[in-house]
Amino acid sequence: MRDLTELTDVEEPAWPLLSEAISNSRVSMDVLPVDPAQARGSLLQLQASARSSLAAFVLNCGGVLLDSGWLRIYGSPDDDAPAGTPSFAEVNDLPERFDPAWRPEGGLVIAHDVLGGVFVVNGPDPAQANRPGGPGEVLYFAPDSLRWDALGVGHADWLTWLLDEGGIEQFYDTLRWPGWRAETGPMPGSHGITFDPVLWTAANRRDLPAARRRAVHMTDLMDLHRGTGLELDKIDPGFLGNFDDY
């Protein structure tokens, strides 16, 4: 086990470059203030140094809500964070006290969108977790296919891409409808949207704006996606994030 000083006092920490990318981004966002104690506890449990993009983000940022909260990127938020906003530690179900035996199931959840899409950083053995891509690669569990897609980048490049103007608009181009910002903006981070017809059907893809929508708790949305994905493909997509405390 490495102590906290070994993890934080490193040469070439990743945060200065990440902080610059966040500050210079023209994408609409809310950057949440960090809770230093929570951040240090998460870093200690991860046993990842601040040279790592993911570790640096969790250590130095409370999280980022992109595009009026459409995408929630998890950090270590303090008590001033908007209601219903989980932390990286909570959404990944990290132990409250350091546990050397703890291991994430398949990978680490780094973000959710309001549709119930999940971004994950792969663990050391993706094949064992029935997931594509290589170790450390970012995956997306797509709510319109209920399958994992390997994005071909690590955490730093993924975050930089999202912060570039046009990146998030292009990624969600076919999954937004007129008035989506006004509808999803007030929604707390503990909730997402379900559709009728559901997103993974051809009927929905033909006419997304006409689909009936309602807000549901993210636990229910994750259970729906995981259960339906298992039913359709006979493969469990695995852990999609914990929202039990919200």
The neighbouring-strand order within the major sheet is 1-2-3-4-5-6-7
> Which word captures the global form?
globular
The number of distinct β-strands equals 9
Point out poorly predicted stretches. Answer: none
List the secondary-structure elements in sequence, H or E.
HHEHHEEHEEEEHHHEHEH
Organism: Streptomyces olivochromogenes
Protein name: DUF2625 domain-containing protein
Pfam family, one: DUF2625
InterPro entries: DUF2625
Topology:
Elements: H1 4-8, H2 15-24, E1 29-31, H3 36-46, H4 53-60, E2 63-66, E3 71-74, H5 88-91, E4 107-113, E5 118-122, E6 138-142, E7 147-150, H6 155-163, H7 167-171, H8 180-184, E8 191-196, H9 202-206, E9 212-217, H10 218-233
Antiparallel strand pairs: 1-2, 2-3, 3-4, 4-5, 5-6, 6-7, 8-9
InterPro entries: DUF2625
Pfam families: DUF2625
Protein name: DUF2625 domain-containing protein
Could you describe the 3D structure shown?
By secondary structure, the chain is α+β, with helices and mostly antiparallel strands. It has one domain (4-166, 179-233). The chain has ten helices and nine strands. The strands form two sheets. Strands 1-2-3-4-5-6-7 form a seven-stranded antiparallel beta sheet, covered by helices on one side. Strands 8-9 form a two-stranded antiparallel sheet. A hairpin with a 4-residue loop joins strand 2 and strand 3. Helix 3 (36-46) packs antiparallel against helix 4. The longest helix is centred in the last third of the chain and has 16 residues, at 218-233. The two termini are 32 Å apart.
